[in-house]
Amino acid sequence: MPLKPIDAQLREVFARFPQVVLVLLFGSVAAGQQRTDSDLDVAVAAGHPLTMEEKIAMIGLLAERTGRPVDLIDLNGVAEPLLGQIVRHGRRVLGSDTLYGQLISRHLFEQADFMPYRTRLLAERRMAWIGK
Q1: Does any domain span residue 1?
Q2: pTM higher than 0.70 for the full model?
Q3: Residue 20 is part of which domain span?
Q4: 55: which of 13, 105, 128, 129 lies 20 to 30 Å off by Cα?
């Protein structure tokens, strides 16, 4: 029996978790560059930070349905630079335009706050290491 497309599999799984309001697929599977040993990178948002029990249940069901190891990211607790990677390279599988727009706005604000410090820190490390 052929496997269902990944987006359909994700929608089926998250239909069992009504607290999840936004699902993004990112990483090699989202880019269509997966190998047989690639994991499934999924970012989710619920109306609250996910509990450990919720994460375990979601990971277990995702792994069972897709046959892949799962890296599940709770968008309620993720920060830059991972948030930026998810927003730039991920694809929305479930969730409204409004929620997705709010996530993008959060990324832009956090990037504006975070990136100058990161750039300065990397420059200081580079100076300490190579003197340039």
Answers
A1: no
A2: yes
A3: 6-130
A4: 105
